[in-house]
From TrEMBL:
One of its GO terms (cellular component) is membrane. Pfam families: 7tm_1 (PF00001). It is found in: Membrane. SUPFAM superfamilies: Family A G protein-coupled receptor-like. One of its GO terms (molecular function) is G protein-coupled receptor activity. It is a multi-pass membrane protein. Keywords: G-protein coupled receptor, Membrane, Receptor, Transducer, Transmembrane, Transmembrane helix. Belongs to the G-protein coupled receptor 1 family. The keyword Zinc-finger does not apply. This is G-protein coupled receptors family 1 profile domain-containing protein. The chain crosses the membrane at residues 50-74, 86-107, 127-146, 167-188, 224-247, 288-314, 320-342. InterPro entries: GPCR_Rhodpsn (IPR000276), GPCR_Rhodpsn_7TM (IPR017452).
Length: 385
């Protein structure tokens, strides 16, 4: 009986020691994996530091620039009767969302790129990525159609539609709502994903990335969704390119007619102004070029994003990963550069900015124009859209 009791106690003690050993080994393994992840994050964050600083600069610059766009196009008297300003306000709002959410999130993500365990933040980031892209594409498409109808059908029933200030706002709201609907599946199927990655010393460890959720990683629904986004983006891009090619051909035709002695106006309302038809046509061409450049920058930068989204970043070298991140997030530039394009190509925008910063009075228009000419070279009259 005594031997049986001793044997039982010894067995219990051995089982307890074995359990302690297992727990200790698990803790050591967990600590080791965490240390490895921290080492990987530190290595990549050091290489990504210039890009992180660049993104922070872009976010701050874009926030200031697009806030200025909201102030100028929202309150400028010269721009009150122009429908395209409503679309530009919508674009500026989308760009501000990008500068306040996506760009800071990406900069923070660079510090712990391979330890992203916040599932909710990952879903929010995926949502705003798709929302900003989809909303901007629909808004730019609406701008293209608006310009196309004005150039090709200036005297048709479209004239009565464009005189209504409610239609552009309705289109902008619809663009935002469509962007939300398209982005919701992205938020559902995104999440933190575990992968195996090698350190610089050749050791393997678990890393956590913001990407496809584990239950959707190999799902047919995710594949269909991604292909659908690519097809939608391609269709919108092709339509925008075709629209601006057609507009360019029409304006070129008008300018050729004018240079031969004809007077072919782009819009009957231009007769109210004292400008010549040739001057109005050339200024309209300048603003069409502005909107075309904005659309092309959007198409090119998001083409990089869509193409590189299929690349596997696991086991990329730090420097290669830095260049990948630069081109993958190149669309951030589109949210920052628009205010500079408006300042370069829209005289009314420049005049309003000069008045705002120089505190010019109503009778100081010539002063603000002289100041703007020091920084930008363009015709002195405003562009009519």
């Amino acid at each position: 009986m005594l031997f049986r009791s001793l044997y039982s106690n010894t067995k219990m003690r051995n089982d307890f020691m074995s359990l302690l050993s297992t727990v200790s080994e698990a803790n050591v393994t967990k600590t080791t994996d965490e240390e490895k992840r921290n080492s990987i994050n530190a290595e990549y964050a050091k290489v990504l530091l210039p890009l992180t600083s660049f993104f922070c600069f872009l976010g701050l610059l874009g926030l200031v620039g697009n806030s200025l766009v909201l102030c100028v196009y929202g309150k400028g008297k010269q721009l009150k009767n122009k429908n395209y300003r409503r679309y530009i306000l919508c674009l500026a709002l989308i760009d501000i969302v990008t500068c306040m959410s996506l760009i800071p999130a990406e900069a923070i993500k660079h510090r712990n790129y391979f330890s992203f365990e916040q599932d909710g933040l990952c879903k929010a980031k995926c949502f705003f990525n798709v929302f900003a892209a989809a909303s901007a594409s629909f808004c730019l498409l609406a701008i293209g159609f608006d310009r196309y109808c004005k150039v090709y059908y200036p005297l048709s029933k479209y004239k009565h539609l464009k005189s209504s200030s409610k239609l552009p706002w309705c289109i902008c709201v619809c663009s935002l709502l469509l962007g939300v609907l398209i982005a919701v599946p992205s938020a559902i199927m995104c999440g933190t994903d575990e992968s195996i990655m090698e350190t610089s010393t050749g050791e393997r460890t678990e890393v956590y990335l913001c990407g496809a959720a584990s239950e959707y990683k190999y799902s047919i629904y995710r594949s269909v969704y991604r292909i659908g986004l690519c097809v939608l983006q391609a269709i919108v891009s092709i339509i925008m390119i075709a629209i601006y090619i057609r507009i360019g051909m029409k304006i070129k035709y008008h300018l050729r007619r004018i240079s031969r002695g004809g007077t072919v106006p782009l819009d009957e309302s231009d007769r109210i102004n004292s400008f010549s038809f040739e001057s109005k046509s050339r200024f309209a061409s300048t603003n069409i070029t502005l909107l075309c450049v904005v659309s092309l920058i959007y198409i090119i930068t998001y083409a990089f994003y869509i193409g590189l989204s299929f690349v596997n970043i696991i086991n990329m070298k730090p420097m290669t990963f830095a260049f990948f991140s630069l081109f993958f997030r190149l669309y951030f530039v589109q949210s920052v550069i628009n205010p500079f394009l408006y300042a370069k190509m829209d005289q009314d925008f420049r005049d309003s900015c000069m008045k705002m910063f120089c505190f010019a009075r109503k009778d100081d228009d010539n002063t603000s124009k002289r100041i703007s000419k020091l920084f930008f070279s363009s015709p002195p009259q405003s562009v009519s859209l």
